[in-house]
């Protein structure tokens, strides 16, 4: 029986915490079960170190395309483990691709690490914003990015021990929250040679479904008018805010004439500074969603024509900017079932008495009808969801390029909504860390299956080609625009214009 020792991996934290991956001796796997048990042992031995990295990224809470330190922490973990890293890919300073191994198959795994503006929260079970903090990990991407890297490290050790052929590819994907970072990476061809792509996401339950999402396109519509004294000489002004409001009125009339699966939502990101000054600049930020990307194109073009009409009617000037556009996720049942089988083996999240008290306090802040806390320790039955409902993700464009599958684990208290302060709080403590470690194991086990079962990859690719259809040509919804690296500028003190 061969023995091998996992090398120490040390990452110096920029916020003063030293993170080290433990040395642990594993036996040479003689079977798939033995290999997965060895991976689980490696992951458990290093769980504290992975949690430390995730919590450092939680503290940083860097917004899309500005995740400089968060990205570097993850790259540092991979670099220390011997991965070759290409940084700043696809014109995005915080994007990276890390590779290890050689030959095929090439199994990719994606990690996100951007935070959401305006949703900061301490680790308290009561609403407790942190003064001066501009963002928070209300979607758990600090766990997502760290967990994906940790899974790659576990599989890397197995490849080293067995000498099995194949390549692990870790994709550091910034700005998922409205910035569509993955789309630019797809457009640059960085995933064209990948056989299968995996990902995961924090959630309030444990599931690995073959699930579609909504396609989504967004834009900022900037109106320019003429300022004037709102009481002394209003006839000399032309209100940019009038243009935005006229646009929104017509967009809301449009809602009657779109299909029930459509979703349209907006915010006014700039509307003037003082009531007695007619605003010469105003901006609307709009999302349009639908299960079909072609319908999203049609609806967004309609919204653009509405904005043009609003500018004409208010004698203002309007300039549109597409911010992002993403496809719906293309489900893959073959991969989803493999992921679900491994999630079932790993199991759910067990709470300590203290964590249960925290969970009960969190649930007291929800409306009535919340699920039982025990849901965190259960695995949801496998489902195939062909038509997207609810949210959108730039994983969609990846899934039209390479067979893709993902899972969710209970990194939040059951009943927690994404993009909430409750998600920030739970993600900042061991409830979040435990959910991440379960995802790490499930991803590592599934990658092992893909490396050792060529038939699984063949089935996934056959289904992928059938779902995508013949003569498919990828046309990004966001067109040929460059990555909007400043789309969060207003959050961190930029002009936002």
Please, could you describe this protein's structure?
- With 497 residues, the chain is of the alpha/beta class.
- It folds into 2 domains: 3-212 and 329-468, 3-Layer(aba) Sandwich (Aminopeptidase), CATH 3.40.630.10; 215-326, Alpha-Beta Plaits (2-Layer Sandwich).
- It has helices spanning 32-45, 47-60, 68-80, 141-162, 181-187, 240-254, 293-314, 333-346, 353-363, 395-399, 421-427, 430-452, 454-468; strands at 3-5, 9-12, 18-21, 25-27, 84-87, 96-102, 106-111, 116-117, 135-136, 166-172, 196-203, 210-211, 215-224, 263-270, 281-290, 317-326, 384-385, 404-410.
- The protein has a 6-stranded mixed beta sheet. The chain has a 4-stranded antiparallel beta sheet with strand order 14-15-13-16.
Largest sheet, described in full? 6 strands, mixed
Q: Identify the CATH class of the largest domain.
A: Alpha Beta
**So, the CATH homologous superfamily of the largest domain?**
Zn peptidases
Unreliably modeled segments: 1-29
How much β-strand is present in the residues? Answer: 15-25%
- N-to-C terminal Cα separation, in Å? 64 Å
Which of globular, elongated, flat, extended, rod-shaped describes the shape? globular
CATH architecture of the largest domain: 3-Layer(aba) Sandwich
> What is the rounded Rg?
24 Å
DSSP strand count: 18
CATH topology of the largest domain: Aminopeptidase
């Amino acid at each position: 029986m061969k023995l091998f020792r996992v090398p120490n991996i040390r990452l110096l934290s920029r916020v003063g915490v030293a993170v080290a991956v433990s040395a642990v001796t594993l036996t040479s796997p003689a079977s798939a079960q033995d290999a997965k048990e060895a991976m689980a042992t490696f992951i458990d031995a290093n769980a504290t170190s992975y949690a430390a990295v995730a919590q450092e990224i939680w503290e940083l809470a860097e917004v899309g395309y500005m995740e400089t330190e968060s990205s570097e922490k993850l790259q540092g973990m991979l670099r220390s483990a011997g991965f070759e890293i290409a940084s700043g890919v696809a014109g995005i300073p915080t994007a990276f691709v890390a590779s290890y191994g050689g030959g095929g198959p090439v199994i990719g795994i994606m990690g996100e690490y951007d935070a959401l503006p305006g949703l900061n929260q301490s680790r308290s079970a009561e609403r407790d914003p942190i003064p001066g903090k501009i963002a928070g990990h209300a979607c758990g991407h600090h766990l997502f990015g760290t967990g994906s890297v940790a899974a790659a490290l576990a599989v890397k050790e197995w490849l080293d021990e067995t000498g099995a052929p194949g390549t692990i590819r870790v994709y550091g994907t910034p700005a998922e929250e409205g910035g569509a970072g993955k789309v630019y990476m797809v457009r640059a061809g960085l995933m064209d040679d990948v056989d299968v792509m995996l990902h995961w996401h924090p959630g309030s339950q444990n599931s690995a479904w073959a699930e579609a999402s909504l396609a989504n396109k967004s834009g900022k519509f900037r109106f320019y008018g003429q300022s004037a004294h709102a009481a002394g000489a209003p006839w000399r002004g032309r209100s940019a805010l009038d243009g935005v409001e006229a646009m929104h009125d017509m967009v809301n009339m449009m809602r009657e004439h779109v299909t029930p699966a459509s979703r349209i939502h907006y915010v006014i990101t700039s509307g003037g500074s003082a009531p007695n000054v007619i605003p010469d600049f105003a901006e609307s930020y709009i999302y349009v969603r639908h299960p079909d990307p072609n319908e999203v194109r049609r609806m967004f073009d309609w919204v653009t024509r509405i904005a043009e009409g609003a500018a004409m009617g208010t004698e203002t000037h309007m300039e549109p900017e597409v911010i992002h556009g993403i496809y719906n996720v293309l489900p893959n049942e073959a991969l989803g079932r493999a992921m679900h089988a491994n999630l079932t083996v790993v199991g759910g999240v067990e709470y300590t008495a203290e964590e249960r008290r925290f969970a009960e306090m969190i649930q007291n802040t929800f409306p009535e009808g919340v699920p039982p806390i025990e849901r965190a320790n259960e695995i949801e039955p496998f489902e195939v969801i062909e038509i997207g409902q609810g949210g959108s993700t730039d994983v969609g464009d990846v899934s039209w390029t390479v067979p893709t599958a993902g899972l969710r684990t209970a990194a939040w208290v059951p009943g927690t909504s994404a993009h909430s302060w409750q998600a920030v709080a739970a993600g900042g403590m061991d409830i979040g860390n435990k959910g991440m470690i379960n995802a790490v194991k499930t991803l590592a086990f599934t990658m092992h299956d893909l490396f050792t079962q060529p038939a699984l990859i063949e089935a996934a690719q056959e289904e992928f080609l059938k779902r995508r259809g013949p003569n498919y040509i990828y046309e990004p919804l966001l067109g040929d625009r460059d990555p909007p690296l400043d789309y969060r500028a207003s959050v961190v003190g930029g002009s936002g214009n």
